[in-house]
Design brief:
The chain is of the alpha/beta class. It folds into two domains: about 1-325, ABC transporter type 1, transmembrane domain (ABC transporter transmembrane region fold); about 335-560, Rossmann fold (3-Layer(aba) Sandwich). The chain is built from 20 helices and twelve strands. Strands 6-9-10-4-11-12 form a six-stranded mixed beta sheet, with helices on both faces. Strand 9 (about 490-495), helix 19 and strand 10 form a beta-alpha-beta unit. Helix 4 packs antiparallel against helix 12, helix 9 (about 160-210) packs antiparallel against helix 11 (about 220-270) and helix 16 (about 435-445) packs across helix 18. The termini are far apart.
């Protein structure tokens, strides 16, 4: 059963998406049970009308009218309960699917971001929303109703074979129209989605660079480029909408024609004495009911295709491993080993590539960082300094060689590009965990930030993130430094930590380095400035990814 579902949906039989579908089988059974009740009891109005025409209107018996009316009311109340059961089960199924996949997709998105594909991870979360929205909508209910069309055809056939044959022909016409819709709408749907994604990415980039755009007068040029993307996306969407409307109009016209023909055929059979007037009306109602699921599927065909494609993308994303995308081209993974506490950190024959392996950025790096030692990394732009910092911090996926460090070596990392997350100052310093007030204040004091934070509108509870925070770039960098210091990590990796600092901030940074050294910690410091070199114990120089110097600061200062 599940295998047939997975084949129909275009997903792998074994995977997290398939497992999530299997987990929803219980809710699916309840939904089908509710669907059974609805589709059986929906015949109540038809049977009630037949009783009125065939019994009540001929016998003029009020007791019979009361009896059939009460029975119809009870059955319709049961149909309402069955419909509620169906709706509840379908909603639970969508909720359970989202609960089972959302966390996995979030983790997958983090891995994609780690591999430089963060936008793809966010797109998969949107795909999950497309799938769950379709399940909770009317389109999925229409799909569940579709297998019940043969029941209505059979009941109509019992009224008269000609009516049943007519409905069968009508259903075949609707199915043909649905197939044509699928054939015609797939390519335009994919094209419209691709163009919409291009436009969205362009707008997101423009907003991210709004200050540069405004300062350099690039607005008109970018607006012209956006207009081109927008017009292409708009034209594609309009073409898709026109095609969908045309197919929908044909479906609606065909439905009205079918209803009229069914009524006309019933009238002809009444004239010939082969059918009663009540059966004629009932046959028309059954025709409408038999064609409704098919018509619903045709109407939501575009949403159905979008949901199926989204489900296939989810399956591909969750089934595929991220690591092969960023594996080292030499086929040797970066092996992490445990070193003795006195050995500190040791790199042996480490190579690194950009994610995807197109270009090697580090070549055969050998480096040891001992407890109580501060090592600075210098070199020209593009030499691989930030890559080395990320690799030591555990934030670079595409590498090979050996990395050894003690098991209790916690890492504090300050990247070159500072990002403050949604949350308060305290939550940002506490790495979005439950803040330990003492540890938060201690880290802020080490970073020379405590007094500044107290002057903020809400102190440590001041909200940050999304560009709405009241901090300068230098202050933001000091918050990020406090975040790196939170928890007293033994290894501190700082990438251009003084890029935005003033003199007071740089003095605070030097004090931090000295405190970490005194506590027996290790610091790897990437810098372009000479101001920090008098604080370090050793300087290594990188050039085109190769370690060309490993010496004390004095020769480095003389060379620079």
């Amino acid at each position: 059963m599940t295998h047939s579902w997975t084949s129909l949906l275009g997903i792998r039989r074994h995977g997290e998406v398939a497992d999530a579908l299997r987990a929803g089988r219980r809710d699916m059974r309840w939904a089908l049970l509710g669907m059974l009740g609805v589709n059986l009891l929906v015949l109540t109005p038809t049977i009630y009308m037949l009783q009125l025409y065939e019994r009540v209107l001929y016998s003029f018996n009020a007791i019979t009218l009361l009896a059939v009316s009460v029975m119809a009311a009870v059955l319709l109340a049961g149909m309402a309960l069955a419909d509620r059961l169906r709706s509840f089960a379908v909603a639970r199924m969508g909720l359970q699917l989202e609960e089972r996949l959302a966390a996995a997709l979030f983790q997958h998105g983090l891995q994609q971001g780690f591999a430089g594909e963060g936008a793809a991870g966010a797109a998969r979360l949107r795909d999950l929303g497309v799938v769950t929205q379709f399940i909770r909508g009317s389109g999925f209910t229409g799909l569940l109703d579709l297998p019940w069309s043969p029941l209505y055809i059979a009941v109509t056939w019992l009224l008269h074979p000609w009516l049943g044959a007519a409905i069968l022909v009508f259903v075949c016409l609707q199915m043909w129209l649905a197939w044509q819709s699928r054939r015609l709408i797939v390519a335009p749907t994919q094209a419209a989605q691709a163009l919409a994604q291009v436009e969205t990415a362009f707008v997101r980039w423009k907003l991210r660079c709004a200050e540069v755009v405004a300062a350099m007068g690039m607005g008109p040029v970018l607006e012209q480029r956006w207009a081109v993307h927008h017009q292409r996306a708009l034209d594609s969407a309009m073409d898709l909408q026109a095609l969908s409307s045309r197919l929908g109009a044909w479906s609606k016209a065909l439905r009205y024609i079918q209803q009229s023909l069914a009524l006309g055929l019933g009238g002809w059979l009444v004239i010939r004495g082969e059918l009663s007037a009540g059966a004629m009306i009932a046959g028309t109602m059954l025709t409408t009911r038999a064609l409704a699921p098919v018509d619903a599927v045709v109407t939501v065909w575009r949403d159905l295709l979008a949901a199926r494609q989204a489900l296939m993308r989810l399956d591909t994303a969750l089934t595929a491993e991220v690591l092969p995308l960023v594996a080292a081209p030499d086929g040797r993974p970066l092996r992490t080993e445990e070193a003795a506490a006195h050995e500190g950190l040791r790199l042996s024959g480490v190579n690194a590539w950009v994610p995807g392996g197109e270009r090697q950025v580090l070549h055969g790096i050998h480096l040891q960082l001992r407890p109580g030692e501060i090592v600075a990394v210098v070199g020209p732009s593009g030499a691989g300094k930030s890559t080395l910092a990320k690799l030591v911090a555990g934030a670079w996926p595409c590498a090979s060689g050996h990395l050894a460090r003690s098991a209790d070596t916690a890492v504090g990392y300050l990247p070159q590009d500072i990002e403050l997350y949604d949350g308060t100052v305290a939550e940002n310093i506490a790495r979005l965990g439950m803040p330990n007030p003492g540890a938060v204040v201690g880290a802020a004091q080490l970073a020379g930030l405590h007094e500044l934070i107290l002057r903020l509108p809400k102190g440590y509870d001041t909200p940050l993130g999304d560009g709405r925070h009241p901090l300068t770039p230098g202050q933001s960098q000091r918050v990020a430094l406090a975040r790196a210091l939170y928890g007293s990590p033994r290894l501190l990796v700082l990438d251009e930590p003084n890029a935005h600092l003033d003199d007071a901030g740089e003095r605070a940074l030097k004090a931090v380095l000295q405190d970490v050294r005194a506590a027996g910690g290790m610091v790897l410091l990437v810098t372009h400035r000479q101001g920090l070199l008098d604080t370090v114990d050793r300087v290594i120089a990188l050039e085109r990814g190769v370690l060309v110097a490993n010496e004390t600061p004095e020769p480095s200062l003389r060379r620079t």
